[in-house]
Amino acid sequence: MLNYNHLHYFHVAATEGSVAAAAERLGVTQPTVSEQVRALERSLKVNLFERSATGLRLTEAGKVAYEQTSVMFRAGERLVESLGQGSQKVPRSLRIGISNAVTRTTTTDFLLPLLALEDTMPSIKAGEATELLRDLRGNELDLGLTESEPPEAARKGLELVQIARTTLVAVAPPSLKPDPEWRESGLIHYRASSSFRWDVEAYLELNNLHPRIVAEADDPLFLVEAAARGNFIVVVPRSVARDAIAQGRLAQLAAIESSQAGVYALYPDGTTAELARQAVKLLIDAAKSAT
Fold first, then answer.
1. Burial letters 246-269, b for 16+ CB under 10 A, else e
2. What CATH number was assigned to the domain covering residues 4-83?
3. Of 23, 60, 160, 221, which alpha carbon lies 20 to 30 A from 119's?
């Protein structure tokens, strides 16, 4: 186990740049500072400083250690600030994980309703859906937002709520006038790993459409730009295409209701998840008002 007193002496010495200045700031003797720092070096089995008559210079290992202690002691300062507010309430933490696929297929204001939760501090991270499920089970997240329903076995002990169903739109520049079967038009398709690909395939087959597949990509924001600049047809979530359509850069050719994709909320079942339930209700209400 590391001695946090040793870490503090090291951090102050690194900040001040000399043993003398660190000793003055800490109110101890110079030999005390030197011994505390050397004890830390012995514990870590590395030299943290290059010592000279002019002062202390961090080694490469020392730079790594100083970066970490800066985070540690700043976190301690924030803890004191948070708990030293007198009669003010300490904000509740709401740890949210959002899958990378959801971040790519929703608007930038999707999570803004969560800022309306009173006395709450949302902390948001992005990651793969499998990673979010693991963190939910490990009690490292309070709420996970994914692009599809996880298998039933994977969500045991978790509540599942659908926040919104994704509506896809086929769009193209207003100047592009595809023929009835789209044979003369280029389509940028999704890769086989995307759930959207099968929605697009089903729509094309149902409507006897046969565009030329010119490329494959999974990023809806890229698809919007590629369509607008390259004179192609793309199929993207309506929310992603909304601004480009409003600006007249793209025109909607068709709407497609996704059979699988949407936004799903996962959170631990039981009474301890009340804050997560409040957050989910806000997101559902916002999604309904946006349609």
1. eeebbbebeebebeebbbbbbbbe
2. 1.10.10.10
3. 160
